[in-house]
# Entry
Amino acid sequence: MNRLIIIVLDGAGIGGAPDAAKYGDSGSNTIANTARVLGGLNLPNLQRMGLGNLADIQGVVPTTDCEGSYGVMLEKSAGKDTITGHWEMAGIITERPFPTYPHGFPPDVIEAFETAIGRGILGNCPASGTEIIAQLGAEHMRTGKPIVYTSADSVLQIAAHESVIPLEELYEMSLAARCIMTGAHNVARVIARPFIGEPGNFTRTYNRKDFSLKPPRPTVLDALLAARFSVTGIGKIGDIFAYQGIDESIHTEGNLDSIRRTVEAINTSAPGLIFANLVDFDSKYGHRNDPAGFGIGLREFDDHLPEIQSAMQDGDLMIITADHGVDPTTESTDHSRENVPLLVWGPSVARGVDLGPRTTFADIAATITELFGLSPWPVGTSFAHEVLTPSPSCGRGLGWVG
# Structure
């Protein structure tokens, strides 16, 4: 059973990106600042994996007796969004940032969209998703006009009440927007953002759907499938890669559901990759500037970490990381340009290896190809030899128990 499990704590940056100032994110450090504001975090399992060795995190102390290997990764791509972070892990460096719209979308885009859907829109401005539905939700329900908004990230979002615009119609609108947002307007994602409730008490639902750009070339996920390994995407992984390079995509409703489905996949999946995203850190806590919620989310994951580890077998390896920061303690409600943690654990993983600062998230892609005996990836540097202890009998890949 030769599985690699990658768990992305969406937005759980560890601070210190050298070019953070260029992105307006000087001082951002999602995990450490959250700990400071809360008076400390209690994360004993992540502490044993070496999280406290990566930064000064109140309540999470450094240890000389780590259960795995640890380091940080620097993003090489231009950007600080979900797409660039995940694509880079899968071996694609994004050289140019995707377009953003700090003043809303231009008239030609909005006119084309209104023509395509046969009605007007509300909004057309950068906004927090929860705030804009609180401001415009009642008018949306009265007029039937969808709410269009963006953020500091490369995204066009369409919010609609599920009783006003049914889900399938909202998805069709989003697909129409995806077809419009091409060329100079090729935003990374168009996101359908359904919500429910009454004025003054609106709630976004887990029926969100992303319409992402397809990766411009094959990723390491495609290489795995071509070599007849399985690739299971959990949470929004399928959306992020436009379902390219994934043979099973599992929709989930929040972190705890994603953790549960990850454990199920470990117990049942064929040799290959299990790629999971825990979205609540980003969507529920980071973007809403909720450090208390972020801290609870970290503790919940820490509490369930032994369950994930117990499901793993000889020949399994787990990487815990993030795709960007989303510091809930700053004035901004957007992503932050940060380094991300790299925690590696498994029955055959060396203990206490400091993997240092990695110069690109693509080191994960390079490691995947070495682990599974594939052709070396053209970008990134594998850390497989650094983390795996020798095995008396190996399968196709390096260090796997046959």
